[in-house]
Amino acid sequence: MIKVGDRLPAGTFQEFIEVEGNGCSIGPNAFDIEKATAGKKIAIFALPGAYTPTCSAKHVPGFVEKADALKRAGVDEIWCVSVNDAFVMGAWGRDQKTGGKVRMMADGSADFAKATGLTLDLTARGMGLRSNRYSMLVVDGVVKTLNVEAPGKFEVSDADTMLQQATAA
Fold first, then answer.
1. Which tens digits make up the pLDDT trace of 114-128?
2. Pairing mode, strands 134-139 and 41-47
3. Which terminal Cβ of the chain has fewer Cβ within 10 Å, N or C?
């Protein structure tokens, strides 16, 4: 499993872009993780799935609510990562009103989740292999803090914990 001090694994995320510009077309666009994190402080939080109860009611709304405070604490970007496709992540982002606050990054085939060792097997619940629930503060591609939840819990990966860590970093 990835740990504090490790570099993020190489790979790409897909993000559904709503407005064409800055070299991005409307629809799914691929972003190289190494390039996208270079020289930036990024708050990443991952969760098992779009539209799931805790994710929709608590995890995403908390980061949307704390986005301005996180940016004042020096966070350049906030990423929500889930094992869903970019179309689902884009629609969920619209529903959650994440525009301009949280980037909704799709790890559609769970490649990032597997590479970090932060997978959650929900096959018995009909959801297949997913991401565990966690948050991490990443500076220039290196993990500075990592908050992994126990199965079924939502206690340490929340926006308030991330804000405290970003303020201290």
1. 999 999 998 888 888
2. antiparallel
3. N
Contact by Cβ (8 Å): 2, 143: yes
Structure tokens at 154: 């939502």
Residue 61: which H helix or E strand, with range? Answer: helix 60-65
The Cα 90–Cα 84 span in angstroms is: 10
Domain ranges in the chain?
12-168
Alpha-carbon distance of 45 to 149, in angstroms, equals 11
Query: CA-CA distance, 157 to 154, in Å (whole number)?
Result: 7
Domain spanning 12-168: which CATH class is it, in words?
alpha beta
Cβ(79)–Cβ(103) below 8 Å: yes
**What residues contact residue 35 under an 8 Å CB cut-off, 6+ apart?**
none
Determine contact, residues 116/133, Cβ cutoff 8 Å. Answer: no
Q: What is the pLDDT of residues 94-106, one digit of tens each?
A: 999 999 999 999 9
User: Which residue of the set 8, 33, 43, 55 is catalytic?
Assistant: 55
Q: Catalytic: 80?
A: no
CA-to-CA distance for 133 and 154, rounded, in angstroms? 8
CB atoms within 10 A of CB 35: 10
